[in-house]
Amino acid sequence: MSASSIPFTVSGGVVLVTGAAMGMGRLYALRAAREGAGVVILWDVDAAGLAKTAAEVTALGARAVVRQVDLADRTAIAGAAAECRAEGPLTLLINNAGIVRGALFWEHGPEQDIAQTMGINALAPMYVTHAFLPDMMGDAGRPRRILNIASAAGTVSNPRMSVYAVSKWAVIGWSDSLLLELEQQGYGHLAVTTFCPSYIATGMFDGACGPLLTPLMTPEDAVDRAWRATTAGRPQLIAPATAQLGKILRGLLPVRAWDFVGGKVFGIYATMDSFTGRGEKAGTR
Q: Which of 28, 127, 164, 199 is catalytic?
């Protein structure tokens, strides 16, 4: 029986979660521990938050491996990856870490906002995956997964999210391409899932309001949906269903017609007007 025909499970395996100190990253780590992962590797810049998550993971029976990593620093990523590869090939890699700056484009600072957002949201998932992918490709004895957290903002443009949106467009394009490359080159044991949620009530998007018929998702619901899609090897999940509808309509309608429907009917273009995030004009997943 080939690995691609065996049901995916993290039981006894090694899971890496970036942005694991809080929010959805913490929930992914706890889900991995509950599902029987042997080792859960936790990466984040927040040392105190990492310690709390590690304690919870350990209490659930998994071994926690903690690394304080600045994902905007490629050298830090390479160093942490070199250490953590000793745990063995990853069974599941969750590229979860992300930040958002809610501001008009010209209000973004080139370094603090633009470079940091692109570095953490778009480049870090590629660097992290690049470091662990050879081992995951080379060990085909069991199914393996990569879960990349993108955003519905990467499918539908929105004011006050220009840099965040382009960072998530980049994740979607890269993640989809990686999936195709692995499939075409015969790595059937290794599947990639791209998760594109609308707003999630983690604190990252405090002050934002969901579009018409699109309430904020709970972190628990978002994590459960992403986990089940990853387990099934689903290539992409856009949630909730109204976010998928927005992507379809944007592709079908002329630009100005979509602007009217998306902006005036669904109210998408006003969703970030009162955004505060976890800090002034900023939020972290």
A: 164
